[in-house]
Amino acid sequence: MRYVSSAVPSHKDASLPRSRPQRGQHRIGGTQLPDDVRWSGDHWNIVDDALSAGPRHPRRGRRTLIAWPGYHSGLSLASFDRRVVGAIAKPLAHARADSQMISAALDAGMGVVLPGETWRNQLPPGHKKRAGAFAQLASHRPGMRLDPEARRFSASFAERLAVDNLDEQLRAGATLATTAAHVHEREAGEGRQNDLLLTRLTAEEFAARRAFAPAPGRRGRRELYATLIVQGLHAANPRTVEWLASAYAGLEGVDGYWIVAVNTTKSAKQLRGYTRLALQLERLSERPTVLSGVGDPHLAFLASGLAATCAGLYGMNFKFPPDELDSDDEDEPTRLAVHTYHRDLLGNSGPLGLEGNALRVALFHNRPCGCPHHAPDRPPLGRSAIIRHNSWCIQADAYAFATPAVPTAEAHLSDRLAQAARNRSFHGLTPLPSGFAAVAVEAARLRGGESEISDG
Ligand SMILES: [Zn+2]
Fold first, then answer.
1. CA–CA separation, 47 and 36 (whole Å)
2. What is the whole-number distance in angstroms between the Cα of residue 208 and the centre of ligand 1?
3. Residue 19 to residues 26, 38, 81, Cα–Cα distance (Å)
4. Which of 104, 116, 211, 331 is deepest in the core (most CB within 10 A)?
5. For residue 378, how far is its CA from the centre of ligand 1 (angstroms)?
6. Helix, coil or strand: residue 95
């Protein structure tokens, strides 16, 4: 049993601290608590597997966060809460220059995901995202602008791209490999068929070379996930979602799915679509599904039972085509400012720099943060402290929504959303994305069998 309700007061008890205390400080009103009482992020629980690590690869029925630590973020492996973070992910293009964290994660028995981001071949050859490290990858296609929708890939082109992309991920240490995938202007057309072809070819290659066997000198099976990049506009169309879920659920030789949301407004309509897609894929295929690119509402997907989400520094949103000076810039990673997350807002606390400073000072004064990376009642200052604060808070929230049973987690999210809406309005901040609350509504509809999608 994971949770035992206890005599320890619930999170509604005003005498409790609002945030998680540091290790060794499990006390209420000066009373030391037994070791098996843990702060879940928002309420106290007696947890008999409090220290059990999350699975290194997503598993249905055990929700986890795949941490996206960002390029040379300064985060150490020790900063990950292994109860909820089982794996780390970073772009394959960054693997060589940022390999230390990958080795450390492998040594620690964590999963490693290194998405090849072959969609970068769709950008003009001079684009910054095609230069630098990506240009060194075998899966880079120099001198051409790939248009997956123009025509069906030739067998040899598709096979080469599928194999190059897989090869390079495995060589760089990926334990969970992902298939090559692209951004589509139209859905269910030639471009999507090309991605499905790449997925089938990668699955064949993965099986043929027995890539599921542990890497030399390592333990633990390797897995292959099919990548689906889906635009927000397309996710809003129930027929498209139905088609995608059915087409990908039927694939053979994959262990799960890696959904990348792109260009999403996070409207209720779009996030409901991603909810249907992700949960239907899990249900039809009985395989775990990971969702990335939906921003802070990823928490709602964890609350509603999705096997995993991927979130972290710069890994929250995906825009295509990306800005030339995108934040995840391998050449000058430390140049760009970082937003400050606040758990009581379920999002970022106002504009960057001077413009937002006064607001953050007031916010942290009124609503102190429990992370160990700055004075609780003052905002973290400087890139390094902000990154460590954000990473800690993202994990604490993921833990809070991924650990309780789904109905409890959804109820808790509903409370937190109401509270965050009040706080945001009080501080004059933009409202939460409307899709945040829509995920649980759609998930409940699916559980109740009211889906617009048939099982086919
Ligand atoms: Zn903090």
1. 6
2. 47
3. 12, 12, 15
4. 116
5. 9
6. helix
CA of 339 to the centre of ligand 1 (A): 12
What are the backbone angles phi and psi of residue 7, rounded to the nearest 5°? -75, -5
pLDDT at 79: 93
Distance CA 185, CA 122 (A): 12
Whole-angstrom CA distances from 25 to 2, 133, 312, 341 are 22, 44, 26, 24
| Domains, the chain, ordered by start | 1-52 (no CATH), 64-312 (3.20.20), 341-431 (no CATH)
- Sequence letter at residue 203: A
State the distance from the centre of ligand 1 to the C-alpha of 369, rounded, in angstroms: 5
Q: Which residues of 159-193 are buried (b: 16+ CB within 10 A; e: fewer)?
A: bbbbbbbbbbbbebbbbbbbbbbbbbeebeebbbe
Other residues' Cβ atoms within 10 Å of the Cβ of residue 364 = 22
**Alpha helix stretches (DSSP H) within 88-237:** 92-95, 99-107, 132-135, 155-171, 190-208, 232-235
pLDDT of residue 38: 47
Q: What is the pLDDT of residue 74?
A: 87
Bridge partners (DSSP) listed for residue 347? 342
- Residues of the chain with confidence (pLDDT) below 70: 1-51, 315, 325-335, 450-456
Q: How far is the CA of 338 from the centre of ligand 1 (A)?
A: 14
Distance 334 CA to ligand 1 centre (A): 20
Give the Å distance between the CA of 391 and the centre of ligand 1. 9
Q: Please name the helix (run of DSSP H) or strand (run of DSSP E) that holds residue 249, with its range, or none.
A: helix 238-249
Q: What is the pLDDT of residue 337?
A: 79
Distance 386 CA to ligand 1 centre (A): 8
Would you state the torsion angle of the CA atoms of residues 163, 167, 169, 174, taken in this order, to the nearest 10 degrees? 120
Q: In whole angstroms, what is the distance from residue 139 CA to residue 181 CA?
A: 12
Length of the chain as a residue count:
456
For residue 104, give the nearest of 23, 177, 173 by alpha carbon. Answer: 173
- Give distance in angstroms: CA of 370 to centre of ligand 1: 6
Query: For 393, phi and psi rounded to 5 degrees?
Result: -70, -40
Give 151 Cα–ligand 1 centroid separation in angstroms. Answer: 50
